[in-house]
Design a protein that fits this description.
Helix 1 (7-13) packs across helix 3 (78-110) and helix 2 (52-74) packs antiparallel against helix 3 (78-110). The chain contains 3 helices and no strands. It has 123 residues and is mostly helical. The chain has helices at 7-13, 52-74, 78-110. The chain has one domain (7-110). The structure holds zinc ion. Zinc ion (ZN) is lined by residues 16, 18-19, 21-22, 35, 37-38, 40.
Length: 123
């Protein structure tokens, strides 16, 4: 199990915000009950809809700029846009959802957000 010290890398790899070694997720987006390395209790976390907002901004910007560039550069048929952009938007959104959720949970832990109720006994 790879241990990460950086909060950003912990988020990218879905690791515990405290030790950087244990798994944060039990499924694709389901958060585990506790860290399997340090025992940090994950219950009470609340990333809610927070991760969706930056993902919508990032994916929306990339897809709009990409579609505009493709249209102005190659003038393809509309069906080519319909083939390219919906699957790309879906894949990018799904790829970014897990790291952004981990980033929000890690930020709640680091900032000791009350809603998260993470214990701060080992900080
Ligand atoms: Zn841990």
């Amino acid at each position: 199990m790879q241990k990460t010290d950086s909060p950003i890398l912990s988020s990218v790899f879905g690791r515990c915000p405290r030790c950087g070694g244990g798994h944060l997720f039990a499924g694709y987006l389901e958060v585990a009950r506790s860290c399997n390395a340090c025992g940090l209790d994950y219950t009470g976390h609340d990333a809610a809809d927070g991760p969706v907002v930056p993902i919508m901004l990032i994916v929306g910007f990339l897809s709009a700029v990409g579609a505009l560039w493709l249209e102005l550069t190659f003038h393809p048929s509309i069906w080519l846009h319909l083939i390219i952009w919906p699957p790309l938007i879906l894949l990018l959104s799904l790829a970014l959802l897990r790291p952004f959720k981990a980033l929000f949970i890690g930020a709640q832990f680091k900032l000791r957000a009350e809603g998260g109720k993470f214990p701060d006994k080992n900080l």
